[in-house]
Amino acid sequence: MDITPKKQDSKFSINERYDFLFATALSKPVRWLLVLPVAFCAMGAIQFLGSALIKLLCNLFGDGEAVVVLLNSILCTIKYMLFIIAAVATTPVVKRRKVMMALLALVVGLLILGASNALLVAVVREFDMTMLIATTVCCVLGMVIGVISVYVKTREGSVTSIQQKQNVGE
């Protein structure tokens, strides 16, 4: 007899329908209103924690330009990937439409990226072009990885249910 307690999932876990657990208790209009704020909060949390980690790593490994560009590029990839995943997990659509929502979040992410880069170029007199190009490419890469992740996770359950139905029919 196994008496170990069952591990309780976090409210920020994603269930089998690719929804945040906290969002399942909310009404559909509220979930639609929370899509971008949740995605931006996820980005902000990663930016805050990642920036602190980058400062720590730069202190350990030195402030070389290559190290800073590499670390910021990794942070941008993770940040924009999480933007897509958080936005999609908040939307109140059925599982088969999650990929469409991921593509919509990709468009929103590209608009945000383009606007922030345009603002940077317009306002800042001197900036590192290498950093701008590297982080822009990694942001786009992160969004593509996010869309692929949503596609794989939402199709994973569909394939399993089809296989189970075929096994029952045999």
Give a short summary of the structure:
Helices cover 75% and strands 0% of the residues. The chain has 170 residues and is mostly helical.
Secondary structure blueprint with pairings:
Elements: H1 28-61, H2 65-90, H3 98-123, H4 129-169
Q: How confident overall, as mean pLDDT?
A: 85
C-alpha Rg, in Å? Answer: 19 Å
| Helix fraction by DSSP (H/I, runs of at least 4) | over 70%
Unreliable sequence segments: none
Instruction: Encode the helix/strand succession as letters.
Output: HHHH
**What fraction of residues sit in β-strands?**
under 5%
Strand-pairing-aware structural class: mainly alpha
Gross morphology: elongated
Number of strands: 0
How many individual helices?
A: 4
Biggest sheet: strands, sense, closure?
none
Distance between the termini: 34 Å
Could you characterize the architecture of this molecule?
With 170 residues, the protein is an all-alpha fold. Helix 1 packs antiparallel against helix 2 and helix 2 packs across helix 3. The chain is elongated, with a radius of gyration of 19 Å.
Highlighted features:
single chain, 170 residues, mainly alpha
